[in-house]
């Protein structure tokens, strides 16, 4: 059917793809399939699994909420993680958009690059170190409280609360939003915006009817990135929340660690991945619609 | 005209100040951290006196030095390997249509959408099974068993590095005029020559970006690494995390500052190299005509 | 069995990748474990059987680093130490198999789990002559009645650490943390299901290891209430936090209060009236240890009087080594005594061993606490 | 005798979509051949198959008698000027041109000399050290041309190379290309959708439509004697009128259009009553100021009403709607000193059409 040349070309492309794809299959697809399998097995006493198929973990996942009165079940916590992440995504977007527009609006390449580097530097530095820095800054005896003292203001407790976890989510996510947004804003043809202005649209209308649709691809990509990053955050709630603002990743860790219940941990993990995947597929669809 | 001008000025100011606030927020914690790494006080936010003790203590700290060397060893191998794999993968994916492209895309998306904690947990589960099996097959006893350690960390790092670097390389490939490669083939270059002489120079910023991405992801990764470490293979983020969890140790401020400084150096070097590369492309007025 | 086939398929797919990885493995030089007849002579045992290196898995900051450098200088064994911050972390590593560690330090209930899961090997006492130094009171505990698998490394207590400047009358009851906490956002409870739930149970009048469902329900509610006030569940930063004054009252280990005291003499420790916990960390050798012989030698080395004293003065726990106890400095004794960390006969009556039956009950109680709020 | 490039029964399918349909094409050595057609007619694909950038689904290609169907592009003595120019952005102008020579490991001095010659040929001698993004579109186009000819290919393929240039430049480049073709003496295959380009430069033009060559002929033949309605409409402007053969006298026929008749010369043996299509170039349509339907001559031309007059600069066009029919005819007349050659003709005026028999071309419907 196809010519020898085409067959050679196809083989070459396959050979180029294979190592990378195999690596991801071996280190992601297969291990994750294993986790899916674990979620249907029974827990062994000191961690690990017994090869005995059961739906107990999923039943427990759903049942915990019914029993819950004082404490949250898994579904509630899952929902909270999703909700927080969605809010964090919106706040990050609101902060990032002006920044991206501002950078794209600089006239000289030097100014653009300098600002971009400024945004990118934290992106390239250890997230752990940055969260640690936030913790250091906001500690009861930390610099911020020291300054409050200096100005005769009352010291405040910042750390170990849902609020600071939320701030941490935004803080760690900011560069991930700015970069794709900047890429999109940079490509916007200013003439289109002027044209919209000429046609009598006010600033708000221009923003929503011309600007947003033009940067939609970058916007959706950034939002997806930030959401997926946030919804499974482990370090931020651990280091800033002190166990008082746990998110779903902490519970997964707790099940694999303290509770030594791998099937339960797997079941929560599978649910979380399913949610993330749904979000990604949705954003991919939006973006492919935008392109066509 | 003047009103339009003032309006533009006003909007630039608004954008600028929001951007400034965002950047300030991004940098304040890190800046404070850097400052306090020179503070002689062991605790609290009070400035005592300038000292380099915390930096001086680093070389004598065996645990820390080992963690640093592990991190570097892993990053320095994982970065080139994953950059090559990512470039191959990008070429193989962007080279044309093929059967199963959609499902391949989905698989390649896994490392990006999968929550880190789940990746870590599933790798632990899969690798421990695989190692057990491998040791059985090879008849390796306790003394010489293949076990978790730098190789397992390296594998895990290469996998996620490759996935993320591929994103960047693919983006730059997509922006490339496909006619460039065709022109090269047409002019008598083989595929191999075409890659080295045309495609690679054209996508170099993307490849460089991918490599930088891989490098920082590798140096920075905590959660996944945590699950696949073995004896003696503790990396810097894990060491930092462990120290954050125990006693006060201001040397962590110093280490964090060093990481931050190193990131900036690498980034600026990369940008400089790129700027140098594009400067070389500008013709100098006195350069003689080729072959003249 | 179909599940078996699934695993096989999975393994076959991963195998080549790991094979490649194994080529890069750089620790294949450990000698085989041998428990020969010749008893250990000297501090380094039989040098011909001694390995070049040893992997040691220990709690973070739980040994004077000098001990390991000294051991390397004296016996030529490079010890690679990695650290964990919870017993579960250790168990997970051992469960995964081929951890590569030849020596680990689990706490008593964890030791029991490890022994029951067949993850530990029996100790060859002939290789550990210094075992004779051990206080008989610290031997024969529930998890290893004949000390076949374990020997004590260090022990300490769980109680309350507090900053005396913050209290007019020093706290003597768990209520100061659980339900009459006057220092909201300046207090913490250990981030550990047994320590946290156990202490709550003790406060409520149950045994530390109680499996009474009613007790657990009450303990759960108590902890969920307490969580609203404390700054964190924390078994890591609280030492630094106590020292810096970030936290003024915390559920804590006795030795940890000691470490905090080094930086901040206002930190004191008390075993509450309702009772506290006496726990012990133990030397154990995993069943798949790459170099059991060298591990035996290191255990014996650490049970030397001078080494044992050095370890205890660093950790600020209690040594089970009677010979080492004689060498402890006055500074150590003063710190322990003045800090309320020392255990006398009166305090000992209030202490119960950390024994656990059903981990399932504890973890479901703890899970409720973790997910609350 | 053999053509330089031969396509035999070449078909190209993308999925189920047939782009080139069982095409036979013979390109002679040294000629300037254009592939002309609307976008999507398969002309670019044909070119890419000759270059080896696309492989035919069926059929064979040969170059100089040797089968090249399965030869990769870099082994074909064929070079291409791409529509986007595809200059290597990281190489200077001279390095771009030297690219093919370097791949052949030619000597330094030889490369330098050949690059210089090529640059001279495209008149870019003083831009050797510029980079592609520093020169204009027209200049880039010249560099692309120099790059493609420097290695003296047997065939030079040009894929709509002028489409990105502005009108003035495009016309200048036509002459340049023609000159270079003459100077080099190699075969040019030129793809375009612009009939003006095809007609002015080519020795022969292949008009393509939906993957097939409809007509392959010299430009004059195509213009004067289009073989089909499509060709007639595509080559130049033509009035295509439905008509019926009224009388046939030897190789002359009289056809009935609208309410009148026109003489036509045709080699077809059309019998009376056959429905045909007429093709008349606008320049050859005469408009007679009709005065109340008074007709002269044997065949009274159809009458109509002027519905549109457009000033085109050097000419004026008039559109006439034929009476008793909804067909329209366009007539074009050169202006003399800026004055409309149609005189005082106005919209709404009635006119009568007349043509020379040689101007009216008959196509079978």
Task: Describe the protein.
- The complex is a heterotetramer of chains A (292), B (292), C (373) and D (365).
- Chain A has 292 residues and is mainly alpha-helical.
- Chain A is 77% helix and 1% strand.
- Chain A contains 13 helices and two strands; from the N terminus they run αββαααααααααααα.
- Chain A has a two-stranded antiparallel ribbon.
- The longest helix of chain A has 35 residues, at 4-38.
- The mean pLDDT of chain A is 85.
- Chain B starts with a helix and ends in a 12-residue tail after the last helix.
- Chain B is globular, with a radius of gyration of 25 Å.
- Chain B is built from eleven helices and no strands.
- Helix content of chain B is 76%, strand content 0%.
- Chain B has a single domain (29-40, 48-276), classed as Orthogonal Bundle (MetI-like fold), CATH 1.10.3720.
- Mean pLDDT of chain B is 84; it is low at 283-292.
- Chain B has helices spanning 2-36, 53-60, 62-94, 101-113, 116-138, 150-174, 178-186, 191-220, 223-228, 236-245, 251-280.
- With 373 residues, chain C is α/β, with parallel strands linked by helices.
- In chain C, the strands form three sheets. In chain C, strands 5, 6, 7, 8, 9, 10 and 12 form a seven-stranded mixed sheet that branches. A three-stranded parallel sheet of chain C has the order 2-1-3.
- Chain C is globular, with a radius of gyration of 22 Å.
- Residues 10-37 of chain C have low confidence and may be disordered.
- Chain D is an alpha+beta fold and 365 residues long.
- The chains are: A mainly alpha (292), B mainly alpha (292), C alpha/beta (373), D alpha+beta (365).
- Chains in contact: A-B, A-C, A-D, B-C, B-D.
